[in-house]
Automatic annotation (TrEMBL), chain A:
It is found in: Membrane. Keywords: Cell membrane, Membrane, Transmembrane, Transmembrane helix. The chain crosses the membrane at residues 30-59, 71-92, 112-133, 242-260. It comes from the Bacteria. This is Cobalt ABC transporter permease. One of its GO terms (cellular component) is plasma membrane. InterPro entries: ABC/ECF_trnsptr_transmembrane, ECF_transporter_component. The lineage of its organism: Bacteria, Bacillati, Bacillota, Bacilli, Bacillales. The keyword DNA repair does not apply. It is a multi-pass membrane protein. It comes from Lentibacillus kapialis. The keyword Transmembrane applies.
Automatic annotation (TrEMBL), chain B:
InterPro entries: AAA+_ATPase, ABC_transporter-like_ATP-bd, ABC_transporter-like_CS, ABC_transpr_CbiO/EcfA_su, ECF_ABC_transporter_ATP-bd, P-loop_NTPase. Keywords: ATP-binding, Cell membrane, Membrane, Nucleotide-binding, Translocase, Transport. It comes from the Bacteria. Its main location: membrane. This is ABC transporter ATP-binding protein. It is a peripheral membrane protein. Belongs to the ABC transporter superfamily. It is found in: Cell membrane. It comes from Lentibacillus kapialis. GO terms for molecular function: ATP binding; ATP hydrolysis activity; ATPase-coupled transmembrane transporter activity; cobalt ion transmembrane transporter activity. Residues 4-245 form the ABC transporter domain. GO terms for cellular component: ATP-binding cassette (ABC) transporter complex. Gene3D superfamilies: P-loop containing nucleotide triphosphate hydrolases (3.40.50.300).
Length: 261, 281
């Protein structure tokens, strides 16, 4: 068997990239706490700056390709949606445009820009977390700080279940199609075709969950022994701990400064 | 004392009106391979669930009688000990994959991780099992992206890695091609030679004839026939119960019909070859 592959399990899981190799909890901490800056300093300039910083982190971690597509897809929907919502409906004194119940004001536009750009930050955070943190590494790190093995299994299993359900829904839709049922076309046709899929999909999922619990029981899931880990992460180095502490202190200081400064 | 004993077992699933198992008694000895056969819905899988201890621990229902493992009632065993001493492989390979591991290698290691076995030992045991099951080509693959047959081999490997003393195997080859089926049966035979006690539900009756020490025939929840494989699988009554006889047993019956019976009734290819060689060799 491939010796390199086997040896990958004898050593900590490292990619060689400084950011990706941070402990998942450190990464989460850094990514999330930085997002508090635009929340407490609400201006479009700060939000755009934070978004650019997250993009830079995606580039530095070598995950830009994985990051940019979902970021644009989500960000370009959520950001403008929040902008439009605020710009159209937020009351204000300085009217820019008025048509029926729509009254666009300068105040609404300003608020819309602020909300829209904050939503870009939120999108960047979520996408960056998903492309730089492997679920398995995260659950390993959580277990190391005392989160029960069952909880980490539920997290990982739920993520896989979403993929499995999607695949099964496609299979059921294909079988419906093979019976001559119209499954493609406009939104109404698709919704009408999708509703009958839900019953077999969820009944199947319930039955499979029962079987899976038996399968996991056969794999000693309920064993009282403390679990070992074939794949493991490196111990968190001192410099990483310092980096996290410094970033946290810096952000907390900025927040305090916002209120007392 | 029998290794595993069923005493007057009757069982009804929750909300079910009729008993799925009816007054079954049998003693199982250590190190034997027991073939469990019967038509669909005859109660084979329920019997497996009972031996595995899932009844009454997991499926509550109404259980009458006793299941004794090494003389102790299954209800008095610690469920964790039962889980680690009795391995269970069932029909659907899709739900036997954990879904949380990135490679087949890690998937096979999952049970050993749960037992808290040291990492180096896990690696050695997984390598051994991968070689035993001849699935080296799958080791690096994502278990969630495998075909049904490949998943079935991985599910089998995952249980073999646990090194349980007792194995309950419910149709392990339902998704496999003929070659894959033969390979799995070779492994089951190796496990038997290692002294494992094996309960095997399988419709491929020729393979049961080849490998089982004893056969239990279940029909509508009742134990209709039981005993040595060569005696049970020679019984034409099985045909009335929707169970095929091994091809060689049918040949042996045909030989009797034309008044040219074999000296000894054959149910396996090896036995038939021997008889044919004796007569015409």
């Amino acid at each position: 068997m491939d010796a390199e592959f086997i040896n990958s399990y004898r050593n900590p899981q490292l990619s060689g990239n400084w950011f990706l190799d941070l402990n998942p909890l450190s990464k989460m901490n850094i990514i999330i706490i930085l997002a508090f800056i635009p929340v407490f300093y609400p201006s479009w300039q700060v939000s755009i700056g934070a978004t650019l910083f997250y993009i830079l982190l995606a580039v530095t971690s070598g995950r830009f390709k994985n990051f940019i597509s979902p970021f644009l897809k989500l960000g370009l929907v959520i950001g403008p949606f929040f902008f439009i919502l605020r710009a159209i409906f937020w009351p204000g004194d300085t009217t820019i445009f008025n048509f029926g119940i729509i009254n666009i004001t300068q105040e609404g536009v300003d608020l819309g820009i602020r909300y829209g750009t904050i939503m870009l930050v939120v999108t960047a955070v979520l996408v960056l977390l998903s492309v730089t943190i492997k679920a398995q590494s995260l659950t390993y790190a959580l277990e190391k700080i005392g989160v029960p093995h069952t909880a980490s299994f539920i997290i990982l299993s739920s993520l896989q279940t979403i993929i499995d359900l999607k695949n099964k829904a496609n299979v059921i839709m294909d079988s419906q199609k093979s019976r001559g049922i119209e499954t493609e076309g406009n939104v109404f046709t698709r919704v009408r075709a999708f509703i009958p899929v839900l019953t077999p999909l969820f009944l199947g999922a319930i039955s499979e969950a029962e079987e899976k619990s038996i399968a996991m029981d056969a794999r000693a899931f309920g064993s009282d022994n403390s679990h070992s880990h074939l794949k493991f992460l490196r111990s968190v180095p001192v410099w990483e701990k310092l980096l996290v502490v410094i970033i946290n202190l810096a952000v907390i200081s900025l927040i305090i400064w916002r209120f007392v400064g | 004392m029998s290794y595993i004993e069923l005493r007057n077992i009757s069982y009804k699933y929750p909300l079910s009106k009729a008993n799925v198992l009816k007054n079954i008694s049998y003693s199982f000895e250590k190190g034997n391979l027991y073939g469990i056969i019967g038509s669909n819905n005859s109660g084979k899988t329920t019997l497996c669930n009972l031996i595995k201890g899932l009844i009454p621990e997991f499926y509550e229902g109404e259980l009458y009688g006793e299941v004794l493992i090494e003389g102790k009632d299954v209800r008095k065993w610690d469920s964790n000990i039962l889980a680690t001493s009795i391995g269970y492989i069932f029909q659907n390979p899709f739900s036997q994959i954990s879904g949380i591991k990135e490679t087949v290698f890690e998937e096979i290691a999952l049970g050993l991780e749960n037992l808290g076995i040291k990492e180096d030992e896990i690696i050695d045991r997984v390598i051994d099992v991968i070689k035993l099951l001849n699935i080296t080509d799958l080791a690096k693959k994502n278990p969630n992206e495998l075909s049904g047959g490949q998943r079935q081999r991985v599910a089998f490997a995952s249980i073999v890695a646990m090194n349980n003393d007792i194995l309950v195997i419910d149709e392990p080859t339902s998704q496999l091609d003929p070659q894959g089926t033969i390979e799995i049966f070779d492994i089951i035979n190796k496990l038997k030679q290692q002294g494992k006690t094996i309960f095997l539900v399988e419709h491929k009756i020729d393979l049961i004839a080849e490998y089982a020490d004893e056969v239990l025939v279940i029909d509508e929840g009742e134990l209709k026939h039981w005993g040595k494989t060569n005696e049970i699988l020679a019984n034409k009554d099985l045909l009335n119960r929707g169970i095929n006889l091994p091809q060689v047993a049918l040949l042996s019956h045909e030989m009797e019909n034309i008044n040219e019976p074999f000296d000894q009734f054959a149910i396996t290819k090896a036995e038939a070859k021997k008889q044919i060689a004796k007569r015409w060799g």
